[in-house]
């Protein structure tokens, strides 16, 4: 992973600006760790529509897994290219987040291992 992106990601994760959620990049309650990177990257968008009652867990924005000739690159693919992240790294960070590890713990992992991510 590029060192500058790792530093920016770590700073964002420990900044306190992001509430942690699980199982999607962003929902009505917060972001997962990859969602934080997506947010600071400026690559994607989030819907400006208000979250309706009962939709708190619905993802907002960011194309994840669409395929086809006329489909834009997914946010995960764009993050891989921009920050030079390995696909396996994305999976590992998602797993850490969804297992309940704190942003501080994930940030420590990124800071310690950025050159192998």
Distance between the termini: 5 Å
- Main β-sheet description: none
Q: DSSP helix count?
A: 5
Task: Report the strand count.
Answer: 0
Shape label: globular
Percent helix, as a range, is 40-55%
- Regions with pLDDT < 50 over 5+ consecutive residues? none
| Fraction of residues in β-strands | under 5%
Mean pLDDT: 82
Helix-and-strand structural type: mainly alpha
- Number of structural domains: 1
What Rg, in angstroms, do the CA atoms define?
14 Å
Q: SSE string, helix = H, strand = E?
A: HHHHH
Topology:
Blueprint: H1 3-14, H2 33-41, H3 75-83, H4 87-98, H5 103-113
Helix pairs in contact: 1-2, 1-5
Description:
The chain has 117 residues and is mainly alpha-helical. The chain is 45% helix and 0% strand. It has helices spanning 3-14, 33-41, 75-83, 87-98, 103-113. Helix 1 (3-14) packs across helix 2 (33-41) and helix 1 packs antiparallel against helix 5 (103-113). It starts with a helix and ends with a helix.
In short:
With 117 residues, the chain is an all-alpha fold. It contains five helices and no strands. The chain has one domain.
Notable traits:
mainly alpha
